[in-house]
Design goal:
globular; single chain; Peroxisomal Thiolase, Chain A, domain 1; alpha/beta; 14 strands
């Protein structure tokens, strides 16, 4: 028998707010986090804009020496995890630490550490490399640092499935609790890779928006969309086995009801041309949740603002929802915060939870006129206050990775 899994805590670091309350308030207002890149000199680059985290500090959580030993993606994870654990009112002194696990992913880890080490080798030789370069750059170090900081001694895993990382991480944490490997999982995704290599690499793939207008930079499903905006941040949630949460009188936000994960097995960067892989992930998640597509009034789309993703995600939604596509509302959080890579799915999961608890579906900001092939209700120019009993969140990544989560109101 699968055990029921609920959400009892949330934490977020984003380009429009460094905690869940501020972030969600900004989402409801339709704020955008795009501005000129400050993390490196963009002279010679075709891209000038990114969605950077602002006014971030670890002072209240990490001492100076500990913080210096962590790269920024790990720092984001630790700070967001602290907010989530506090929100869940989880006291580790009252828990068996071997029953509390960690599943936090990053798609690339620290490109900064790699770039710095490479520059040091060129200019000063290999003996001058920082001795902590390897443990600082590895993608698993966000999960490792969170486990160390908070004494989480259960299963500790790092999922790296490109832009599907955050959703896959939460899905795998969900599975671990369902089948008894843990009672609690601290899970999500984190990323900080607004660097010369990242921006240059995605630019040469023609994946990034080249506009200099922040209001038209990330415009999912728009006929003028020309790429995504690189973002950074972290989303961490506390998943808990239902009876465990009830015994400690935990606040329950929502129930994780279904998880689907597939691969297109088609191309290293392009999604399958018929949307079949993404559609199957959605079908699996909806089936596990015991729902029909018509039971789900809201989809938080992957919605990257690239031509192919928005087209094929639309095709996949039509393939699954059929007649229900006439009524389902769809929006892209990336229209406000850009693409947070490995953190994207986790932050968007938090948006889905807040959508259920607040009865509010946010608009897709910036998009004005959709392309002819994108003909669904993408919440263009309006938001909606309504009861949302269930929501679906999509994430897709290079390598053909597809991941979908379905959450529903806890009853």
């Amino acid at each position: 028998m699968k055990r029921r899994v609920v959400v009892t805590g949330m934490g977020a670091i984003t380009p429009i707010g460094n905690n869940v309350q501020t972030f969600w308030s900004s989402v409801k207002k339709g704020c955008i986090g795009f501005d000129k890149i400050t993390k490196f000199d963009t002279t010679g680059y075709t891209v000038e804009l990114a969605a950077e985290v602002k006014n971030f500090s670890t002072n209240d959580i990490l001492d100076f020496t500990t913080a210096r030993r962590m790269e920024l993606f790990s720092q984001y994870a630790v700070v967001a995890a602290k907010e989530a654990l506090d929100d869940a009112n989880l006291d580790m002194e009252n828990e068996d630490p071997f029953r509390v696990g960690t599943a936090i992913g990053s798609s690339v880890g620290s490109l900064q550490a790699v770039e710095t080490a490479s520059e040091t080798i060129r200019e000063q030789g290999p003996r001058k490399i920082n001795p902590l370069v390897i443990p600082r750059m590895l993608t698993n170090m966000a999960a490792g640092n969170v486990a160390i900081r908070f004494g989480l001694r259960g299963k500790c895993i790092n999922v790296a499935t490109a832009c599907a990382t955050g959703t896959n991480s939460i899905g795998e944490a969900f599975r671990n609790i369902q089948y008894g490997d843990a009672d609690i999982m601290v899970t999500g995704g984190t990323e900080s890779c607004i660097t010369p290599t990242c921006v240059g690499g995605f630019s040469i793939l023609k994946a990034l928006s080249t506009t200099t207008d922040p209001l038209r930079a990330s415009i999912p499903f728009d006929k003028e969309r020309n790429g995504f905006v690189a973002g950074e941040g972290a989303g961490i949630v506390i998943l808990e086995e239902l009876e465990h949460a009830q015994k400690r009188n935990a606040k329950i936000y929502a129930e994780v009801a279904g998880y689907g994960s597939t691969d297109d097995a088609y191309h290293i960067t392009a999604p399958s041309q018929d949307g079949s892989g993404a559609a199957k992930a959605m079908e699996l998640a909806i089936e596990e949740a015991g729902l029909m597509p018509c039971d789900i009034p809201y989809i938080n789309a992957h919605g990257t603002s690239t031509y192919q993703n928005d087209l094929f995600e639309t095709m996949a939604i039509k393939r699954v929802f059929k007649e229900a596509t006439k009524t389902v509302k769809i929006s892209s959080t990336k229209s406000m915060i850009g693409h947070l890579f490995g953190a994207a799915g986790a932050v968007e999961f938090i948006v889905c939870v807040k959508t259920l608890t607040d009865g509010f579906i946010h608009q897709t900001v910036g998009t004005t006129i959709t392309s002819p092939e994108c003909d669904l209700d993408y919440m263009i120019g309006y938001s909606s206050e309504q009861d949302v009993p269930a929501a679906l969140s999509n994430s897709f990544g290079f390598g053909g990775h597809n991941a979908t989560l379905v959450i529903k109101k806890y009853r």
